[in-house]
Design a protein that fits this description.
globular, alpha+beta, 3 helices, Alpha-Beta Plaits
Length: 117
């Protein structure tokens, strides 16, 4: 996984934290499909995720506007993935939506801030 290449703020982040249930049961395939489908949505900016061996994970999708987020939430395949998540894949989850107003990046070998986005 790499960092999402994002524009200068403001933009929005949908932060999804979840504890996975045991087993895959189609999860990996559906997750890949959701990322592919989201990329086709107007207002989609990027995606980052990480998951620990204990099944706890964080996924962040970035969007140009709140309307773009609302449109993504209504997509039929995404609605079905949400239903499967509640029924089969997650023990517990939280969703948070935040407006990103400032962002900083550090990309050099010395750990210095290179620029404010």
């Amino acid at each position: 996984m790499t960092f999402a290449a994002l524009p200068k703020p403001p933009y929005y982040a949908v932060i999804f934290t979840a504890q996975r249930a045991e087993g895959d049961d189609g999860y990996s395939q559906t997750a890949a499909r959701m990322e592919e489908l989201a990329k086709e949505m107007p207002g989609y900016l990027g995606f980052e995720s990480a998951r620990g061996e204990d099944g706890f994970g964080i996924a962040i999708s970035y969007w140009k506007s709140e309307q773009a987020i609302a449109n993504w939430k209504k997509v039929g395949e995404h609605l079905e993935a949400q239903r499967r998540g509640r029924a089969d894949w997650y023990v517990d989850y939280d969703v948070r939506v935040a407006k990103v107003e400032r962002a900083y990046t550090m990309k050099n070998e010395r750990g210095e801030l290179e620029r404010e986005l």
